[in-house]
Amino acid sequence: MNQTKLLVLLLVMVLLIGGAWVLYENYGDSYQPDVLTPVTPDDTTPPVTDDTTPAEDTTDPDAIKAPGFTVQDGDGNAVSLSDMVGKPVIVNLWASWCPPCKAEMPDFETAYREYGDTVHFMMINMTDGYQETVEKAKSFIADTGYTFPVYFDTESEAAIAYNATSIPATYFIDAEGNLVVYARGMLDAANLQKGIDMLLETTE
Question: What is the pTM of this model?
Fold first, then answer.
């Protein structure tokens, strides 16, 4: 009797996983933000932790400072968001087990090749040490041949700072370290370009 229940449970799980995969294959590309979400002080669904404070030394009193964090590069060196100040930054949170994350990466690679000299790209892997490890993430990047900079959130600092309850998630930060817009969910090429254009406008 117990074996029968177990087999039924396993069958239901397989059907659910299969159904989710079919839905993703058919509708995944259409599940994208129509527009990027601006960051404002009265945002009712803040994309960052509650202790975010207005940016200092800025002409915009409504600017929201991007929360800081420290991650690791491929050699295990500590890299902080503050190290990127001086150029706009795109922070993308991803994992190799996440199909929407992987689906948007070719557009990020194209954007990095075009704008990598003027915009910092921080492709931050959600490295929990279990479902995702540094080795798995590095293997995925090596197999796909992506050249954008990859960092590893081994201490979950970026995930916590940006309330990463789901991925992918992308945050566009200006050269002064202020959040401009963000997107939760898969970005298409047009919205990614729109976010980059908004960042470049802030440097003019």
Answer: 0.76
